[in-house]
Design a protein that fits this description.
Elements (H helix, E strand, L loop, with lengths): L1 H23 L4 H22 L8 H27 L2 H8 L2 H13 L5 H20 L4 H24 L5 H27 L8 H25 L5 H7 L3 H13 L7 H23 L8
Length: 294
């Protein structure tokens, strides 16, 4: 069990590094995501090939997984676009609004009642982002793009729940990465033309960071999550992942010196977001929300 908790916290730390890589890699966010998808697809294919091969799936499932992967890819474009337009701290804080959009989209798509409690806690997060948005005009574009990315992430989460049900997890992820790569590849020429960028191979330093991002923060991270869920409840895993924005902001301050860029309105908004997470945690514990180990 101790080994499982060690893997869990390692996976959260790896997730925290994604924002730092996004800031350090000099490529346009569209190119960054496309190369990440291609590299991740290749790594997943090799991994599955040496572990028995991808599970055979019906074309309908492969297409559904590919379409779901495009949602994830578009979320990544917005997430890294937000970071590049502002900074890592603002990008991950905007991602925290994913809970609000999930509480909104899941009942609509799954035809169940909206939870007033989930909406209330999520609105506290929205108030935190609003505080940063209102008082810190430097990051308004980054915040707008980041919130759009959070909405796409919520849609991906809801759709992925249905696409991956009863399927091999890594095979589904491979189809999602391939679908995302194909979709972004088709949109990329128009996107680059509008952004005034060219399709260029990544410089050596960017290529190294892309390989690290794809290997450790995507494939290895996902494998760790699968292993952890064998011994630890999904509830505990989800609660622990609430630390991801904290880790990301700490890393951004440590490696990128972002503490100098942040003001009182940012910390006030961050305080409201942490309050929202704490209330959600308290509510889940009080209602016995922990699920049995998978």
């Amino acid at each position: 069990m101790n080994n499982a908790f060690l893997k869990l916290h390692l996976s959260v730390v790896l997730a925290g590094f994604t924002g730092v890589f996004g800031k350090l890699i000099t490529l346009n966010e569209g190119l960054l995501v496309w190369y990440r998808l291609l590299l991740t697809s290749l790594m997943l294919f090799v991994f599955l090939r040496f572990s028995g091969g991808p599970e055979k799936s019906a074309p309908r499932h492969a297409l559904a997984a590919g379409a779901t992967g495009l949602l994830l890819a578009l979320h990544w474009v917005c997430f890294y676009g937000s970071i590049k337009a502002s900074n890592v701290s603002v990008g991950v804080v905007c991602f925290s609004t994913v809970g609000f959009f999930t509480a909104l989209f899941e009942p609509l798509l799954c035809r169940r009642r909206v939870s007033a409690r989930e909406m209330l806690f999520s609105l506290i997060t929205i108030a935190g982002v609003g505080l940063i948005f209102h008082f810190d005009v430097r990051y308004r574009l980054g915040i707008a793009v980041g919130v759009l990315g959070a909405a796409l992430a919520a849609l991906f989460t809801v759709c992925n729940k249905h696409v991956s049900a009863g399927r091999d997890t890594l095979t589904t992820l491979l189809y999602e990465m391939l679908g995302g790569a194909a979709g972004i590849g088709a949109l990329l020429p128009v996107y680059l033309a509008l952004a005034g960028h060219e399709l260029v191979p990544p410089p050596l330093a960017d290529m190294i960071m892309l390989l690290l991002l794809s290997l450790f923060c995507t494939v290895f991270l996902y494998v760790l999550q699968i292993q952890v869920l064998r011994d630890i409840s999904a509830f505990t895993v989800n609660l622990t992942y609430n630390l991801e924005p904290v880790y990301s902001i700490a890393m951004a301050m440590l490696f990128l010196g972002e503490a100098r860029e942040l003001n009182a309105s940012f910390y006030g908004g961050l305080g409201l977001i942490i309050l929202s997470v704490a209330l959600q945690t308290w509510s889940s514990l009080r209602s016995g929300g922990a699920s049995p180990p998978s």
